[in-house]
Amino acid sequence: MPVLPTADIASIRSLVASSKQSRHKKGVIAVSAAPEWDNDADLTIDGQTVRVRTAPSVLAIRDALTERSHVDWVVILTDRTPAEIPVGVLEHLVAGRLSNLDPWPVLRQLFGAARQEFDLLSLDNGCARAVVRELHTGHIAPAPDGVLTTDHLFTVLAREKFGLDPIELTPHSFALWSTDPVSTHRFDVWRTSVDSALFDQFLRWISRTLGPLGAPLAQLIRKSSPSDIVPVGLVAALLNNRASASAAFPAPFEKSIRVRTLLEVVVGDSIHLSESHLATWGNTATLAVSGSAVPTATIRRAEALVDELQASALVGRSDVLPSALRPRIERFADALNKAIGSTDHRDVENAWANVLAHRSAGLGHTDAPRDVRVGGAALRLLRHLATSDDDPQTLPAWLAAYRSDLSWVDGAVNVAFTGADNTVLAAATHRIVEAVRIRRARADQLFARLVASNGVHKSDMAGLLWIEDLLDRVVKPLTVPPHGATGHSAGASSSPVLLVICDGMSASVANDVVSDALRRYRPQWQECELEDAPWARAALAVLPTVTTFSRCSLLSGALTAGTQGEERSGFTSWLHRRGLAASGKILFHKADMDAVSRGHALATEVRAALEDTERRPVVACVLNDIDDSLDRSDPIGTTWSTSSFKHLDALLAAAAVVGRTVVLTSDHGHVVERREQPSVQRGTRESARYRSVSDADLTSVQADEILVQGERVLTDRNRAVLAVDEHVRYTGLKAGYHGGAALSEAVIPVSILVNGAVPQHLGLVESPSAAPVWWDAARPAITTVDTAPPVRPPSKKHTARPAPTDTLFDVADPATPIHSAVAGGRDRIAELLASPLFAQQYATFPPRIAKQQIGLLLIALIEGNGRITLPQAASILGVQPGRARRAIAALSQVLNADGVIALSDNGTEVELSADLMFEQYGVAP
């Protein structure tokens, strides 16, 4: 006797609905089904009462018929054959016969479909009934065009049962779903109760839908759980010998075979993982964990698999596994140690590129691992040591050199000084830092001598900004009223300015703060410079470099000494002398800034002043966060940001609202206490870095000090001895000091920040402070090709051929490129690189690759009839072969404008559609 199907609520609902469509409002339905029912006997379906009875005998059927007067519908589940049921009983059934539990009409009705795909669920009735049971209570999306397909069925099933609901099911979207612990738990629960045949059909659909990777993924799910998809893929990535880091971490062939064999056991013995499987799975898994919100369980499982599969020797190849960072740091440390004293930095640069490729590296972030921060600083200093050591000859040149180069050196030294955990890295960093500090100490000595001779007397030295002239030379030009129809409008309001003085901020700290402001608030804030005074990025402090002299002179616009009272009167007097309104309070010190009401970011009085652009066009605020840190904390290794200041973020926000141009500067810099043995207190003086001197003491000036005397030395007798070497101090131990003549103390940073569009009437041009060339020297420097078009690589020599004669079918010489870059005496590549669209694309997606190298790559592609190998492209671009695809991807963003795919790669070759490229950039044939 055949096994009868088991009825469920969905099938009962379908039987009732079908009978109602046959114009029966109520009645009895007898169904050929197993006489079993585990649900409630009385149901309500579409507002009608339905009673379900089981009838293993004819007598039970007769008994069930007696209940038809109590409910709208009676459904009888019986295993009796039609021949066993008397005609008198059949006459009481709405259909006049036994009904069958045909699942297909029910299934189509569930999806609102009139038809179904051929071979849907392999026409397995059990699978169809299982789907109906799984989805009868869900919100089912109707089948498109009324045709129920396998894709639609399983898409709905996956969404309803375990939250798999991508716009398009791909290996990437499937891997992302598998990292969600809630979704994978729902799947694991579902698989324990689902019909086995339906589960097989689902895995068959996954295998077909996900392409070549579908079969391995389906087999892994069958044997394990979807939560293993990404962890297993991360281990598979270690076996990809084409990965960028594989060359740095080679493994014996036997080891790779062993790991691969164990991996296949985890996936399933029936699956052979090809090289393509390993590469695709590895890339998919790596991409799935490239974001910031990666479940810890996924990474922990992957790390556990590395141990289980004996793949620890290969882990350095991973860009994402936390344990991979350590071997990359170790290799970098060895390469760095070997590179000291060498001019060949290729190995250390390649090793560092592998460190940065790791997702945990995070260089530039405050939470970057210590060895990454220290290693990055050490490599930057090594590059700096490889640059020429040409000393500036004038004070303006020294100020420019410190602002654009040496201040970055100081910042890197401070980071390197925090110390590394890796002992090899620590030793190598120490050697590099000591070499840099010798050079820096010599620079401080040379600068201090020039200050003693040329910086103590006021002069009109070209290109030199004295701190006492900053208001006149920088702030006042920024208050110029907007242009009217015929020039500056009479009586027009001054353009508003906010002067922010960060007490004690060195140029090194300013580099961090300004970079952070531009990064966090891009594109709102832009750094600019005065078009007529590009040198006004740095000013020379008053001597000695302390607040009493330098800040008071800055705010007074003249050489003077004093405290807050003198600063207020001096600032107000300068505003009046320059014809600028000064109604109400216009200078705010620490106590004023800290008088913040609860729930507010700025003190009420400060905000009111900033908003009053008519009567207070220039407002100044003093921030003491840096100066305070020199007393209470260790600034070495600190990465300063706008949020490091209590009030700077709020000031920038308030200035942006009312359109104030911001001038960010300081009154002096500082040197840090490194707590080294040479740093000892020399006597007991009134200041940390300068001391007074009498006529009899002139011979006491030591080699690490400098004697200065002149009207810009604002001590009682206009002379003093200033410390030059950073180890010298005259007071007790602190975290930092100021008052001396070192570059980091005397060179004051000046940054002009504009929110939004740069006002044309202020004479400003956008000019962000760029890091020196050695900061990221591993990448090719940006060059221009406007005046020097790219040089063509030498083409292969071809033997001369006789002049062709006219033939019926003229064929072009195959050695001649089809898409020549030169047409009619023009260089089409140079035209493309000089086009406005390319300039826009290059600025929007900066690839860190020189334009000249881009030109050489395009020429090689055109000469190669649109194709060259990835290693060839790597050689032209100056990158590792393993990183060629990344470089091409970066260039594709530049060259593939407006969705036109001109440049691409197929995994082994780079491809270029020259016609499309030239057409897109408007370069005529």
Please give a quick description of this structure.
Helices cover 42% and strands 11% of the residues.
Question: What would your notes on this structure say?
Answer:
The protein has 925 residues and is an alpha/beta fold. The strands form eight sheets. Strands 10, 11, 12, 13, 14, 15, 21 and 22 form an eight-stranded mixed β-sheet that branches. Helix 4 (103-110) runs parallel beside helix 5 (125-135) and helix 18 (395-416) runs antiparallel to helix 19. The radius of gyration is 39 Å and the shape is elongated. Residues 778-820 have low confidence and may be disordered.
Q: Which terms would index this structure?
A:
925 residues; alpha/beta; eight-stranded mixed sheet; five-stranded mixed sheet; 27 strands
Outline the fold blueprint.
Blueprint: H1 9-21, E1 27-32, E2 42-45, E3 48-55, H2 58-65, E4 73-78, H3 87-90, E5 99-100, H4 103-110, E6 115-116, H5 125-135, E7 147-148, H6 150-162, H7 171-178, H8 181-193, H9 196-209, H10 214-223, H11 229-238, H12 253-267, H13 275-288, H14 296-308, H15 325-339, H16 346-356, H17 370-385, H18 395-416, H19 423-454, H20 470-475, E8 483-484, E9 487-488, E10 497-502, H21 507-520, E11 525-530, E12 538-540, H22 547-556, H23 564-577, E13 587-588, H24 590-594, H25 604-611, E14 618-623, H26 625-632, H27 648-658, E15 661-665, E16 671-672, E17 690-691, E18 705-709, E19 719-723, E20 736-737, H28 743-746, E21 747-755, E22 764-766, E23 822-823, E24 826-827, H29 828-833, H30 836-844, H31 851-863, E25 867-869, H32 870-877, H33 884-895, E26 903-905, E27 909-912, H34 914-920
Parallel strand pairs: 1-4, 1-5, 3-4, 6-7, 10-14, 10-15, 13-14
Antiparallel strand pairs: 2-3, 8-9, 11-21, 11-22, 12-21, 15-21, 16-20, 17-19, 18-19, 23-24, 25-27, 26-27
